[in-house]
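Biotin synthase: structure, please.
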Amino acid sequence: MTLRTDWTLDEVHAIYNQPVLELVTQAAAIHAQTQATGEVQVCTLLSVKTGGCPEDCAYCPQAARYHTGVQAHKLLPDAEVLASAQRAKDSGSTRFCMGAAWREIRDNKDFDRVLGMVEQVNGMGLEVCCTLGMLNEYQAERLKQAGLYAYNHNLDTSREKYDDIITTRTYDDRLNTLEHVRKAGISVCSGGIIGLGETDEDRIAMLHTLATLPAHPESVPVNALVPVAGTPLADQPRVSVWEMLRMIATARILMPHTMVRLSAGRQEMPVTEQALCFLAGANSIFSGEKLLTTPNPDFDADKQMFALLGLKPRKSFKDMPEGATVLGRTAAVEA
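Here you go.
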């Protein structure tokens, strides 16, 4: 299947607004053509530095300006991070993601420590992902040299809605970070959040932006807002499964080789709703009891769901080109 990065906004609009069953059917057919159906990437996300963030993201309990009850802590000890990575691997995860509540990476001893964590977790045979805020070309190169497989930096919403949600960095700041990540040869992970008070047009515009980047992100997380008391969006209603299906199915059609991750909000979804999302083209999840600071299904619950639905975990490093390495790791390494 030919990959397109020249989608028009009208084309995305037409895809997204199909009758939902027709949309899911089309996405499922494309998923079967381009991906191994029944295979789901299992990722685990750990907050290695929590709270105290100077930004004003309206959804985030880690922003210092909001009173959300999140206890700030400095960068975790290496031993604690590595123990969490080992637990994740033992429980079936093949990608380990480390998040720090920073606005941007600074070239200091904390960044040096994160680089060491990346190298050690990569040495365990796990794909390593980080989400550390904005970065420059030099920092992206250092992460690549340490063995980083993927970098997450979400767009969050459309350019038009963005200033209603965040004022402490611009939309172009986010796009520039993605460009630095891509230039360094690191896998790009970028998606967004629905349920922020945006319109369908905002959701369509965000998907259009992602699908018309110079290359599609290798991973697109689709998050449903988890409202947190103390944030400006605390009273937002829960996103419905039908809204999630439209986002996931449209992302699958536009970006057929991308991993589409059913991310935040899954704690509130019964297995029947999650199964519909997998049918629509989702093939990645976060497993483990927390997503940074918000609740998430634990490993045992996900193992039961996989057994019920006949799903199997995706191997780590599966998408690496033949002969390519990340600090000695090669494609399709068994986790």
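Notes: Residues 321-325, 330-335 have pLDDT under 50 and may be disordered.
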